[in-house]
Design goal:
With 599 residues, this protein is α+β, with helices and mostly antiparallel strands. It is 30% helix and 19% strand. It is globular, with a radius of gyration of 25 Å.
Length: 599
């Protein structure tokens, strides 16, 4: 099977092993063959593809981050000159401009191949509510692909494209990932622009990303996560919210719902696979902590039982009022329910949501992230058609609360049932933790040892995705910049991440410097009589490193600090002359120990 990961493709292009035209031609042959799974709505013809291909000719493959990478677009997201249907033929229009995110990807060298099937108007988690036919699972077409971004997920799982765009309001970017053995990124709301997207619930929607591997998803965020000034719901990427420390690489704490709050709907395979995933996360450095999941579940019920369904009605009000018969019955019934709520209902639901948000915030004092199943079971298409509302509701058990409570999340492959159907879990954390979750998702995916999608291709033997290290500089800190201390926000506000807690080589003296607040220590390398001093190593994004260093006052500065494992990293050092009036605290070996005072 040919390698369709972004990393693999770019490597082949740069080495001259494959050309963009060869890759795209083969992908189109695959796509235009028998589409028994109903994956695609519109596939670009040769004339429509030519401008994208011609633009890349003569360019160095290393000049663009997504040079020649083929991708698919959910058909509620605009691609210039190509019909947008939102899963409803009578709704169709042809946009003059591509969605902001789509254009960012094209500018980076990616090649769009077409538009994919979805639950009509992005209303559903099953992928079976489409006049273009129910979308079949990549592993067994008798089972659902998940929705609403069904075709987008299956296209990636089958290796037809390297990545795809979906949308996620209630789980549409995570459930299809779980059912097709993919990474599914549900970004923080507003991180990716929604301009050029047919809305479902505009205040909650987010564009989502499907990839075969976590490293590929990181590549897409690097390109697409740019503030769109014309999208009123876009938000600039920022440091961690709630004043929390970043997610550590090891020693992280992950929450798991109490046993009586887990639901697998009789699926013993999924239940066993989830417990295996918990153990796997523990094996790579996590500490499991049981949490009360009740407020999350109560928030989830607000999405369809509360007035937010009125947003779905508002999104297509003119169309549903004038052409109700053009819609699927179940879709029309759900969206029609949005006529009923009153303004007072909306306010009361907002009050309740804020109460639940406050209750959920308490859990972040105890954990860095939460692990859940992505879905409790996987149904057949026949089961969905027999009970469309109930089965769909079951699939939202672990997903419906996510955008209401403003979390970042990534779905991760986590094994297979006895019948060969995939199982997946979701890691989630507060808003704007997207880039912190991906390295952990990478490690968890590798630990599970699952193949890539339905391609049968083993995970590439590349080093694990390092937290921010592709575009970051490690810095050793020994004082007020450490986790929980007064100057730590100077790191977290710049999206720096804690890599590890360690010690220096036994070659340093450590001093409490006069002045403050805040109090600061000075680390000085000496020729003899040195000691090992506790430090934390943080990864500072390269674009923020200069501003961080510029704020360091004399007599401190950045030099090379040798760690106990013999490696050298940039870190805080102090001018020797400044220690003449300082207190030598080397015997304590730790700034935290000094702050605790005499024991």
């Amino acid at each position: 099977m040919r390698d369709m990961t972004i990393e693999g493709l770019l490597g082949d292009y740069r080495a001259g092993r494959r050309s963009v035209r060869e890759v795209v031609a083969q992908a189109i042959v695959d796509i235009r063959g028998e589409d028994s799974r109903n994956v695609w709505i519109t596939v670009l013809d040769d004339a429509a593809l030519e401008p994208y291909l011609a633009r890349l000719e003569g360019l160095d493959p290393a000049s663009l981050p997504l040079y020649g990478v083929p991708f698919a677009i959910k058909d509620n997201i605009d691609l210039a000159g190509v019909p947008t249907t939102a899963g409803c033929p009578d709704y169709v229009y042809v946009p003059e401009r591509s969605a902001f995110v789509v254009q960012r990807l094209i500018d980076a060298g990616a090649v769009p191949l077409g538009k994919t099937n979805l639950d009509q108007f992005a209303t559903g988690l099953v992928g079976a509510r489409s006049p273009y036919g129910p979308c079949g699972n990549a592993f067994d077409p008798a089972y659902v692909a998940g929705g609403s971004s069904s075709g987008s997920a299956v296209a990636v799982a089958l290796g037809q494209v390297s990545f795809s765009l979906g949308t996620d309001t209630a789980g549409s970017g995570r459930v299809p990932a779980a059912f097709n053995n993919l990474i599914g990124v549900k970004p923080t709301r507003g991180l990716l622009s929604a301009a050029g997207v047919v809305p479902a619930c505009r205040t909650l929607d987010t564009v989502s990303v499907f990839t075969l591997a976590a490293a590929d998803a990181a590549c897409i965020l690097d390109v697409a996560a740019v503030l769109d000034p014309d999208d009123s719901y876009a938000r600039p990427e920022r440091g961690p919210s709630l004043g929390l420390a970043t997610i550590p690489v090891t020693g992280f704490r992950f929450g798991v719902p109490a046993a009586d709050q887990l639901a697998f709907f009789g699926d013993r395979n999924y239940e066993a696979l989830f417990h295996q995933a918990v153990a796997r996360l523990e094996s790579i450095g996590g500490e499991r902590i049981e949490i009360d999941f009740a407020p999350f579940l109560e928030a989830a019920r607000l999405l369809y039982e509360g007035p937010w369904v009125a947003e779905r009605y508002a999104a297509i009000r003119a169309f549903i009022d004038h052409q109700p018969d053009a819609m699927f019955d179940v879709t029309r019934q759900i969206i029609d329910g949005g006529r009923a709520p009153l303004a007072v209902d909306a306010f009361e639901a907002q009050y309740r949501l804020e109460d639940l948000r406050r209750r959920t915030e308490r859990v972040w004092d105890r954990v860095d992230l939460i692990l859940t199943p992505t879905a409790g079971t996987i149904p057949t298409i026949a089961a969905v058609q027999a009970a469309p509302v109930r089965v769909n509701s079951d699939l939202g058990h672990y997903t419906n609360f996510m955008n209401l409570l403003d979390f970042s999340a990534v779905a991760v492959p986590a094994g297979f049932r006895d019948d060969g159907l995939p199982f997946g879990v979701t890691l989630f954390a507060p808003a704007f933790r997207d880039r912190e979750l991906l390295p952990l998702a990478d490690r968890l995916q590798r630990a599970a040892g699952t193949p890539l999608g339905a391609t049968g291709q083993a995970q590439p033997g590349t080093p694990p995705l390092a937290p921010d290290l592709r575009h970051a500089i490690p810095v050793a800190v020994c004082g007020a910049h450490m986790s929980g201390l007064p100057l730590n926000p100077q790191l977290t506000d710049r999206r720096a991440r804690l890599l590890r807690a360690t010690r220096t080589a036994p070659e340093y003296r450590f001093f409490a410097l006069p002045g403050g607040p805040p109090e600061r220590p000075g680390l000085v390398r000496v020729g003899r009589d040195g000691m090992a001093i506790e430090v934390e190593v943080w990864a500072v994004p390269a674009e923020h490193f200069g501003s961080f260093v510029a704020g360091i006052p004399a007599p401190l500065g950045i030099g090379r600090v040798r760690l106990e494992d013999g490696t050298d990293v940039p870190g805080f050092l102090c001018e020797g002359l400044a220690t003449e009036e300082a207190t030598d605290i080397s015997h304590l070996g730790s700034w935290r120990r000094y702050l605790q005072g005499p024991s």
